[in-house]
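Repro case for the chain-ordering regression, as requested:
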Amino acid sequence: MPFIPHTEDDIRSMLATIGAPSIEALFDEIPPALRAKGLDGIPPGLSEMEIGRLMSERARRDGRPLSFLGAGAYEHHIPSAVWAITTRGEFYSAYTPYQAEASQGTLQVIHEYQTMMASLTGMEVSNASLYDGGSAVAEAALMAVRAHRRSKSLRIVIPTTVNPDYRRVALSTAGNQGLRFESVPYVRDSGCIDHAALGAYAGEDIAALVIQQPNFFGQLEDVDALTDWAHAQGMLVVAVVNPTSLAVLKPPGEWGTKGADICVGEGQPLGVPLSSGGPYFGFMATRMELVRSMPGRIVGRTVDLEGRAGYTLTLQAREQHIRRGKATSNICTNQGLLMTAATIYMTLLGPTGLAQVAEASMARTAQLVAALTRLPGVQAAFTGPRFHEAVLRLDRPAGGVLRALEVQGVLGGVDLSADFPELGPALLVCATETKTDADIERYAGALGQALQASRAA
Amino acid sequence: MNQTLEKSIFEYSRPGRVAAAQLPPPVGGRAAAEGIGTAVPEALRRRKAPLLPEVSELDAVRHFTRLSQLNFSIDTNFYPLGSCTMKYNPKACNQYAMLPEFLARHPRAPESQGQGFLECMFELQEMLKEVTGMSAVSLSPMAGAHGEFAGVAMIRAYHRARGDLARNEIIVPEAAHGTNPATATMCGCIVKEIPVDAEGDVDLAALQRAVGPNTAGIMLTNPSTLGVFERKIGEVARIVHGAGGLLYYDGANLNAILGKVRPGDMGFDVIHMNLHKTFSTPHGGGGPGAGAVGVAARLEPFLPVPLVARGEGGYRWLAEAERPQSIGRLSAFMGNAGVLLRAYIYMRMLGREGMSRVGEFATLNANYLQARLRAAGYELAYPTRRASHEFIVTMKKQARELDVTAMDIAKRLLDHGFHAPTTYFPLLVPECLLIEPTETESKETLDAFVEAMTAILDEAQSNAAKLKGAPYTMPVRRLDDVRAAKQLELTWKPPQAATMAG
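-- result from build under test --
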């Protein structure tokens, strides 16, 4: 009973108060035929010392390879203070702040987060976060259909330059409500949305165009032209962005003449560890006039009985616990702890630090691309400006090259052959501010060896 | 608890102040020598810096530490929040889930660089199968509601795969969590609500009338949100299965029966488990949760991807290619991996003997508290029933006679140092408090709670006005929710701008 405090005396006196002969008797309303026979498949319990040893051994087995992986999750330095504070019991073990008077800490953090995210994205309002980047794209598609005043269309245009896993999540999540996702190809030279192909949708009744910036390949789209075009066709614009990039890139609120309508993305780069894919958080921001169509929790500032400022959950009439079957979404959590970490991260980095992280990541990626494309058989797949990722084309299958690198302790990138076979053998690589000259030389050296070895073979 | 309000982080901000230790080192040397430009084209460049605070590291640490002190939490207060299972979150679960190798592992890292992690995930799937009596488990849903979505989507996929296209109605008892009908709608289903009888069991006659050729399934919580075990579950299963529908188990109250009854043995076809309740991962002020789903054999092909499999070469992922009938991917990667590690550690620490004691002692604590509060003069919503791991008291008499509501009791409890129970849920019991003590609370804590509740009931008689003004000892008094929704202040504005706007 590792965490149960009851003594034998406690149990006796509690049963006497209840008037039951045994703990077993408390289950007398459950039909006997349904009772479990025991849990033989569960191993016996472990002490903290034993579980500590087991987990440390398993973690050691996974090692710490030198990683150049990105594709939706990015390695950044996380200040020590971020998780030292986030894991304080008062944040870690608190519930959703429904009792506002006893939750002012959590509520104020959310309000500060909303302020930072709204400003970073150039939008007017932000919610308190969603599950992750993929589910945020799905929720944005559903929101666009709800929010579109003049159209009842369930069609969303989502180009192939949007992260393929986000496209999958959007379909799994919103397909059941009849949403249809239509794709648009990219230009082979630039790795950006094919504007001419997009033109085929001119005049069609479409709820929204989704634009990812930087796109899945790391390339920068012409967001102004795309936004203005979509608005001219009567579509809403859903922006999918990397929050780090927004320190240097034009925020979605300023795209084109009117700005994007809904902005979402993966919040992980803001102080959240990679941790095999989660927990992360999705962010969502929009224009004030669409706030009532936005899913998820929102915190507002108000006053108490004595006129003092305080914070509370607001606009709850959109949510499942009030609206039930008519709610904007069934979501009833935000990723509170991750959003708390991101708020502390953004505070510690500030506008200067975040811009320096973005610039250093861009510089390291440019340096990586230069170093790797000096090797014979390696070339950049696309021209044009990029952020902190790049697609490299190889002269032989990427899988074998990646495995050879892995043996040398280098995770050399994401193999794109399954999702983008038309590219031929191709890798998506990423370098952030965490990579040094030595790291990049190590990768280039290992890749050179791997290519030579397989050429010799 | 700290009672001093904390100003906004933006009020600490001074232009040009930086937490310099956190800045990345300048990229020089090789990169600079090669003259690599990092320029963003002018048209795509950000022109005005975002409104982020400019503070020192100490400013930030003090500010967020002070904010944390404005919260109630399990670590600081008894938290008898019904339906939420606010039990102790063991520190070991956090520490060992945050080992540096686990934190650094990229979701796209190859399986060979994650065998330790994948072994934990595989064993977690196996243990969850065992405690629930289901055939297969997917860990990818990221919250209870997300698990519900996966569950109902699988029910739809199952009927569709059989060519049974008309089944689009989901039956939900009126006491259900709001997420149940919201989920059914998100899955493109029509919701049919049915009543429960005076003792809290499903009204079988109403159920019989509700089922038919359009029935996709029923969503049930057992023990129900009324804090009682659904005794007619066998009959419910026969009626729904007889009509061609499936049974969905909402695992919100799994803690009550852990180790005592398994949803699979009750006839359920699909379940979700709230790992942040039953398996004690933190609530984190509103997330992250984890909503793993389990299914009976006939629904196995439809589980959301990815899944973890064990083969000769070790542990590996199963994704879309290996699972063509899957309802698909619900997260860009594999869900809330770090939360799943915490649940794994918790289950391994409890082991098989600890697991069944969870249900036993959660039930003992709830029945003890129910007996004592009844003796103290509180009216039970279902006085003839055993409590499960939670129970309901109703303040309808006090509301009528003294104008004292459940909300007033809840707010006054805060002054006594206790978090309020769940109020006004389930909706069908007027002026209700749903109370769930959990197994990790001691008899002394429960007795202190009864003392506070007794004092409050006395106060309702002697000084109702005082009660209605509660709380008095929190950082703020009751907040004006109407103003919050009417005059939306969703972001911080500099004081002068706020004045001008106001």
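Ordering looks correct now. The two ends of chain A are 59 Å apart (CA to CA).
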